[in-house]
Write a structure and sequence with these properties.
single chain; Rossmann fold; 8 strands; 42% helix; binds adenosine-5'-triphosphate; binds magnesium ion
Length: 219
């Protein structure tokens, strides 16, 4: 199963979602995590560096906390600018063959990489941080999804009230990931927030939220 995390808006939690979903799913499944953002947010969140070489998609992986992480590399930029969707979709599907679940993190745009990962996806997940232009962003994404004949599951960091109308391909699930300082602290340390939360506080509150999200996504 391919789970692609998208939102063309930057800084809404795509990387945080990808990293923590992969982390909790890896407790019960064989999980891969593909960083398709040339910026390498997921790569850094697992304490690694972007690779300064051009690779194929899925060309190298490292197992961290039971997640097989495919770090970002310079080849992603070339794909974004020169690559075609069909072959990129095929590459993503090929990587997914080795796993129960492949989680894919995407860049904040609707370019080749995020489009391909969306086409390849069995489940499209949209983290939403309600802000003034959120509805416009979601409507654009919605029309893109309709064009692809895809549906997406969305969640917010709390309130979901203003976001119900106008984007019929995007269904808001009954799970929210509340705001927390843990995310910033964890990303500074290069570990998934769920892991950091468990070690630091031993109450596993974040774990419960991400387990709930994982459940509605993987059903
Ligand atoms: N639920 C949350 N509560 C508080 N902070 C959060 C939450 N989710 C994410 N953050 C923080 O918000 C910032 C942006 O998150 P993240 O990098 O996941 O977004 P993104 O959509 O991947 O951004 P980009 O589009 O630039 O790749 C990070 O500093 C992260 O720690
Ligand atoms: Mg990101």
């Amino acid at each position: 199963m391919i789970v692609t995390v998208v939102n063309q808006k930057g800084g809404v939690g795509k990387t945080t979602t990808s990293v923590n979903l992969a982390y909790v799913l890896a407790r019960t499944r064989n999980v891969g995590l593909l960083d398709l953002d040339p910026e390498g947010g997921t790569t850094v969140s697992f304490g690694m560096r972007r690779e300064k070489v051009e690779r194929e998609i899925g060309g190298k992986s490292v197992n961290i906390f039971d997640v097989e992480v495919f770090p970002a590399h310079l080849g992603l930029l070339r794909r974004e600018l020169e690559g075609d969707v069909e072959s990129t979709v095929a590459s993503v599907r090929k990587v997914a063959e080795g796993f129960d679940v492949l989680v894919v993190d995407t860049p904040p745009n609707l370019g080749t990489l995020s489009l391909s990962a969306t086409v390849a996806a069995d489940k499209v997940v949209v983290p939403v941080t309600p802000q003034p232009l959120t509805m416009e962003v979601l409507k654009n994404l919605d029309s893109r999804l309709k064009g692809l004949n895809k549906r997406a599951l969305a969640f917010t960091n709390g309130s979901k009230k203003p976001l119900k109308e106008g984007a019929s391909s995007i269904e808001f699930v009954d799970v929210a990931i509340p705001q927390s300082r843990v995310f910033t602290d964890a990303s500074r340390l290069g570990v998934p927030a769920v892991r950091y939360d468990e070690f630091r506080f031993r109450n596993g509150r974040l774990t419960q939220h991400y387990n709930a999200l994982a459940k509605v996504i993987t059903g």
